[in-house]
């Protein structure tokens, strides 16, 4: 057994308290062995956490990581226009090499901002899985299936690919990769395909992840065509189970919040994307009060425009108060839980907390910064003041991914250069 000791820091515990302690990690099993003072002499390797806060690694509950190549590509448009006029056409020109380059750039960004796990919905998923294995992160991956504007043969093949990817990649990267069946949304996948493939996903034993109620335009067609709200429509097709999780949930009414709470289905809140695309304000406080598990996600870098969960936490806290018209809504401790334990629970990961026996997924935040001084309430600082650049070290599954801002599993310069090259090539191809 080789051990890692994170020393001389302050540790955020699952109950929201903070204590001065060291964290001892079994690097072979990837688990935390002990959290206690004076463990610095115990570890074979050490990470200095002096004047720092040791937190659970952040869990990005919903993103499209390869879309880093489209950061700043098209801004300041409503969702439907943005997708149909800009994003879907350029995505149609993506190659596997583009997706690999964009994924590596996104993984680099996540490691540098303390994210240790994420859920990703995209295509060319084997390329994404291979990049995840190299980078050392934990991920739940799936192929996004879309059937609208396709003939029946193409639609069937695309939906089958989502199921095949879920079957083939589950457990990859020494168990750090899990999978889900991922219909893109309730309005972009025909009901006949949901009715055929959701039971197959259940037989396979994987969860289902999809966009739902992101905009009013995703609600109205379902109500008009089927006579029920979107989440009632989803429930009728077996898509609201405890292992399932949906993205956004902006325009849910009280009946749908009740369905989520009763089913145990989780919601991933993406406040920055929802604000930028003017999709609306999700009723996060009402969902939490109803007992719905709510996690946090960045969505893609094309609509955010970064993958920092610390930025997302601040946005979630601020927008949650505005939506509820209540300054006490979505408080600091709650939003930090959403970015760690909430997202982890939604994705089925046994992470998001620091205690003996938990996976050693953690981040170390440098507190010696003007914007993090004084130290009245460090949980408040995480929610309202900390930034990606404050992350000193990142550890996933007991492996040090970043030490003193140097990423050890990816070549930062090479990753950035490849991303720039692929983005330039993509511009040229789309412009032809």
From TrEMBL:
Family membership noted in the UniProt record: Belongs to the metallo-dependent hydrolases superfamily. MTA/SAH deaminase family.
Which residues participate in Zn(2+) binding? Answer: 62, 64, 211, 299
Query: Which gene specifies this protein's sequence?
Result: mtaD
Q: Which residues form the Amidohydrolase-related domain?
A: 53-400
- Cofactor(s) needed: Zn(2+)
**What binding details are noted for the cofactor?**
Binds 1 zinc ion per subunit.
Q: What is its EC number?
A: 3.5.4.28, 3.5.4.31
Transmembrane among keywords? no
UniProt name for this protein: 5-methylthioadenosine/S-adenosylhomocysteine deaminase
The family database entries (PANTHER family) matched by this protein are listed as: AMIDOHYDROLASE-RELATED DOMAIN-CONTAINING PROTEIN, AMINOHYDROLASE SSNA-RELATED
């Amino acid at each position: 057994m080789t051990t890692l000791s994170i020393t001389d820091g302050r540790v955020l515990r699952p109950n929201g308290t903070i204590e001065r302690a060291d964290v001892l990690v079994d690097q072979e099993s990837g688990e935390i062995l002990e959290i206690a003072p004076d463990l610095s002499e115990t570890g074979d390797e050490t990470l200095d956490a002096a004047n720092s806060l040791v937190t659970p690694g952040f869990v990005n509950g919903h993103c499209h990581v390869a879309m880093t190549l489209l950061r700043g590509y098209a801004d300041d448009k409503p969702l439907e226009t943005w997708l149909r006029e800009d994003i879907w056409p350029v995505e149609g020109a993506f190659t596997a090499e583009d997706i690999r380059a964009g994924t590596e750039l996104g993984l680099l960004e996540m490691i540098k901002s303390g994210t240790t796990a994420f859920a990703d919905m995209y295509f060319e998923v084997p390329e994404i899985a291979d990049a995840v294995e190299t980078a050392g992160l934990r991920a739940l991956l799936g192929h996004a299936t879309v059937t609208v504007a396709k003939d029946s043969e193409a639609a069937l093949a695309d939906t089958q690919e989502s199921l095949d990817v879920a079957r083939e990649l589950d457990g990859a990267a020494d168990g750090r990769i899990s999978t889900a069946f991922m219909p893109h949304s309730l309005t972009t996948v025909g009901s006949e395909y949901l009715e055929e493939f959701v039971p197959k996903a259940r037989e396979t034993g994987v969860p289902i992840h999809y966009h739902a109620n992101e905009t009013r335009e995703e609600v109205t067609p379902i109500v008009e065509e089927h006579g029920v709200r979107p989440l009632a429509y989803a429930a009728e097709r077996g898509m609201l189970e405890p292992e399932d999780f949906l993205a956004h949930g902006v325009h849910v009414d009280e009946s749908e919040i009740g369905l989520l709470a009763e089913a145990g289905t989780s919601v991933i809140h993406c406040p920055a994307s929802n604000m930028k695309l003017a999709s609306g304000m999700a009723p996060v406080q009402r969902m939490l009060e109803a007992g719905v598990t709510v996690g946090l996600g960045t969505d893609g870098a094309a609509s955010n425009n970064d993958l920092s969960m610390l930025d997302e936490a601040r946005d979630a806290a601020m927008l949650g108060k505005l939506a509820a018209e209540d300054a006490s809504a979505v408080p600091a401790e709650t939003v930090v839980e959403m970015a760690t334990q909430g997202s982890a629970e939604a994705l089925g990961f046994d992470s998001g907390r620091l205690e003996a026996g938990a996976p050693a997924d953690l981040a170390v935040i440098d507190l010696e910064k003007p914007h993090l001084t004084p130290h009245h309430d460090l949980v408040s600082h995480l929610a309202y003041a900390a930034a990606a650049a404050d992350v000193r070290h990142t550890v996933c599954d007991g492996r040090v991914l970043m030490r003193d801002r140097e990423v050890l599993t990816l070549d930062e310069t090479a990753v950035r250069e490849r991303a720039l090259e692929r983005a330039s090539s993509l511009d040229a191809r789309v412009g032809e």
